[in-house]
Write a structure and sequence with these properties.
This protein is α+β, with helices and mostly antiparallel strands. Helix 4 (about 90-105) runs parallel beside helix 6, helix 8 (about 220-230) crosses helix 9 and helix 9 packs across helix 10 (about 270-285). The strands form two sheets. The chain has a five-stranded mixed sheet, with helices on both faces. Strands 4-5 form a two-stranded antiparallel sheet. The protein folds into two domains: about 5-180, no CATH class; about 195-335, Alpha-Beta Plaits (2-Layer Sandwich). It has eleven helices and seven strands. Helices cover about 70% and strands about 10% of the residues. The longest helix has about 40 residues, at about 145-185.
Length: about 325
C-alpha cells in the first residue's frame, strides 16, 4: 500500500468513526443519557480535527489521539450505561488493532506508536470503569430493549475484529514461513532451486522414482566469459541459461548446483534423453547479447538414469563423471 492508499484508508476510517459518533449521540438523546450526548460534542470535533492530521500525513499523531479518545469513550460509556450495553467489550479488540497498526507502520517504514503504553492504558480504563459500575452501578438506568440490541451489536463487532485480526496474524505467519522457506530453497540470481532443496528431492526420488534420471549441466568456458565480458555478463548468461532450462524442461526439477553448474532431476527418463538433446540445441541456437556484444554460449551435459545398484552419492557422481567426459571430448555435448 502506497502513501495515497494509506491516506484514503485513514480518511475512510475517520469518516466511519464520525458517523458512529453522530449515530450514538442520537441514540443517547433518545434514551436521555444526556452526559453522553454532551460528551459526543467534543468527540465529534476531535475527529473533525483528525482530518487535518491525515491531510498532513501525521498518521502517528492520528493513531495516538484515536487510541486515547476511543479508550476514554469506552470508559465513559461503560460508567454511564453499565455492562449491559457492551461498550467495555471494545477493550478486547482495541489491543490487537494497536499491534496490527504497529505492524503496518513497520511494513511501510512509518513511525510506530507505543503499544505497551496504550495497551496498559486500555486495561486500566477497563478496570476502573467496570469496577465503578460494579460498586455503584451505572449512572443511567438501562432500557432492556436497547441494551439487548447494543449488547448483540457490540459483541458481534468485537468478535468480528478478533476473528479478523487473528486470521490476519496467522495468515501472515504462514506467508512469512513460506517466504523464509522459499528464500532458503531458491537461488536469488537465477530463481532456480538451490543445492539444499535439490538434495531433499534427490533423496525422495532415490527412494521412490526408479524411472527418474539426473542431468549435470555445466556452462562451457564460463571463466572466459567472466574474464572477457565481465562478471555482470556472467550473471546475465547464468540467468538466461536458467530461463531457457525452465522454458524447455517439463516435469523437471532444476537447481543451481554451484557456480555455473546445474543439476536437473527428470522424472521420466524415457523422455529425458531427447529433452537434453533439444536443450543443448536450444542453448546453441539462442542469441546471448550483453552490452551490444554477442557472447557464444554452450553447455556440456552428463546424464545418468536411476539405478538400484547405485547409492545416491554414486548416482550424482556418475552424472558428474559423464559431464567430465564431455568436457574432455570438446564440450558442447550430451554424454548419456
Amino acid at each position: 500500500m502506497d502513501s495515497r492508499g494509506i491516506k484514503k484508508l485513514t480518511m475512510m476510517v475517520n469518516s466511519a468513526i464520525i458517523f458512529m459518533v453522530l449515530a450514538l449521540a442520537l441514540f443517547f438523546y433518545l434514551t436521555k443519557a444526556m452526559f453522553m450526548v454532551y460528551f459526543s460534542i467534543p468527540t465529534f470535533f476531535v475527529y473533525v480535527f483528525m482530518y487535518i492530521l491525515i491531510s498532513r500525513g501525521m498518521y502517528s499523531g492520528f493513531l495516538r489521539i484515536v487510541y486515547f479518545w476511543l479508550t476514554l469513550y469506552m470508559g465513559v460509556a461503560t460508567v454511564c450505561l453499565g455492562y449491559s450495553y457492551g461498550f467495555h467489550l471494545y477493550s478486547m479488540s482495541m489491543i490487537p488493532i494497536i499491534y496490527y497498526t504497529n505492524y503496518m507502520a513497520y511494513k511501510l517504514n512509518l513511525r510506530k506508536v507505543g503499544t505497551g503504553i496504550y495497551s496498559g492504558m486500555i486495561v486500566i480504563m477497563y478496570l476502573l470503569s467496570t469496577m465503578r459500575v460494579s460498586i455503584y452501578g451505572p449512572i443511567y438506568e438501562s432500557n432492556e430493549f436497547f441494551s439487548m440490541i447494543f449488547w448483540v451489536v457490540n459483541s458481534l463487532i468485537v468478535f468480528s475484529f478478533l476473528v479478523f485480526y487473528t486470521k490476519f496474524t496467522v495468515d501472515n505467519m504462514i506467508k512469512s514461513e513460506d517466504k523464509l522457506k522459499e528464500m532458503s530453497y531458491v537461488d536469488r540470481l537465477t530463481g532456480l532451486y538451490n543445492r539444499h532443496y535439490m538434495m531433499e528431492r534427490l533423496e525422495e526420488a532415490y527412494k521412490t522414482s526408479e524411472g527418474s534420471m539426473i542431468a549435470m549441466i555445466d556452462i562451457d568456458d564460463f571463466k572466459k566469459i567472466n574474464d572477457i565480458y565481465g562478471h555482470n555478463a556472467g550473471d546475465y548468461v547464468l540467468e538466461k541459461v536458467s530461463k531457457i532450462m525452465k522454458e524447455n524442461c517439463d516435469d523437471t526439477i532444476i537447481s543451481r548446483w554451484g557456480g555455473e553448474e546445474f543439476l536437473l532431476l527428470i522424472k521420466n527418463a524415457d523422455s529425458g534423453y531427447e529433452m537434453m538433446d533439444k536443450l543443448l540445441e536450444k542453448i546453441n541456437s539462442d542469441k546471448f547479447v550483453f552490452d551490444d556484444k554477442d557472447i557464444k554460449v554452450s553447455v556440456t551435459i552428463g546424464v545418468e538414469k536411476r539405478d538400484k545398484g547405485l547409492s545416491l552419492h554414486k548416482w550424482i557422481q556418475a552424472a558428474d563423471e559423464k559431464l567430465y567426459i564431455g568436457k574432455t571430448k570438446g564440450k558442447n555435448v550430451v554424454i548419456k
